[in-house]
Amino acid sequence: MRIVVTGGAGFIGSHVVDAYIARGHQVFVIDDLSTGDRRNVNPRAVFHRRDILDPALPGLLAEISPGVINHHAAQMDVRRSVADPELDARINILGLIHLLEGCKGLGVKKVIYASSGGAVYGEQETHPAPEEHPRRPWSPYGVSKLSGEYYLGYYQAAFGIPSVSLRYANVYGPRQRSDGEAGVVAIFIGHLLAGRPPTINGDGRQTRDYVYVGDVVAANVLALESSYSGALNIGTGRETDVIALLASLQDKAGSRVSAIHGPAKPGEQRRSSLDASRARAELGWSPRTSLEEGLEKTIAYYRQGRIG
Question: Does 141 participate in catalysis according to the annotation?
Fold first, then answer.
């Protein structure tokens, strides 16, 4: 199958590309390298350096004629979305619309969309949250990701472009940047291995559901063959607070560097965890990697000098 992966030079997208290629698919990567790394791109993929809003994108899609589009290109930084919601909306909402407009008439069988369970639900009433949980995003990033899901539903109803939205928990693992838009796992590891004190924002008791990138990739593979349309949570259902996460990383990294505390981040909720029962039922997916095992794999990767 011919598959386009937008954001295929990035953290999650590049792993998805590897998995698709390993299964015999022909993969085309579209990435502007604003946050991705060309070195992450599988050499067997066809690479196009393009912005998701490039006016030439529809023509490129017509030339490729993909069966599936896997959309990981995004503005992913919650703090940046708060500081510049217009930028966030331009990339995450207008970029998706531009992509979907380019899909019209091409016979695309499915769009697999990287959404965010942690961002679209906001402060949760139940833990872990099922897909039916009220969506009350606390940040422009969450608003844009949820808007993307609604636009996908519209394009499916109006133009027959099927889609599935994978609402990720907090994804971590190899290739995640330890600066900029990175998640807390990569940031903490980068600081610990460099001997710098990591910063805990707020009191450190905020919880997140940490899911290993390899498990997230498995969901993207299973979604290829599934006929399910709609949203699916991709998470472990387990909450870990930031203080406990850092303690585990310090132990595994053999680091005695102490943390410092900074102000809480605007736009971030207190607790987050996802119920993935529907993904198990519809895709046959469940997380296979424990947090302890995943952290060990991730630290081993960064010890090879792949930081930042």
Answer: yes
Integer CA distances (angstroms), 97 to 50, 112, 141, 175, 250, in order: 16, 14, 16, 28, 43
Give me the residue label for tokens 């899909």: 103
**Best CA proximity match to 206, nearest among 279, 296, 138:** 138
Which sequence spans correspond to the domains of the chain? 2-169+212-235+275-287, 172-207+239-274+292-303
How do residues 252-295 score in pLDDT, each as one tens digit?
999 989 999 999 887 678 999 999 999 999 999 999 999 999 99
First-to-last alpha carbon distance for the chain, in angstroms, is 33
pTM of the model: 0.96
Catalytic residue among 141, 155, 168, 210: 141
Between strands 2-6 and 68-71, the pairing is: parallel
The CATH class of the 2-169+212-235+275-287 domain is alpha beta
Angle subtended at Cα 175 by Cα 173 and Cα 176, rounded to the nearest 5 degrees: 65
Residues 6+ positions from 234 with CB-CB distance below 8 Å: 117, 166, 167, 168, 169, 211, 215, 216, 219, 274, 276, 279, 285
Q: What digits encode the pLDDT tens for the residues 188-244?
A: 999 999 999 999 999 999 999 999 999 999 999 999 999 999 999 999 999 999 999
Contact assessment for residue 72 and residue 10, using Cβ atoms and an 8 Å cutoff: yes
Homologous superfamily assigned to 172-207+239-274+292-303: UDP-galactose 4-epimerase, domain 1 (3.90.25.10)
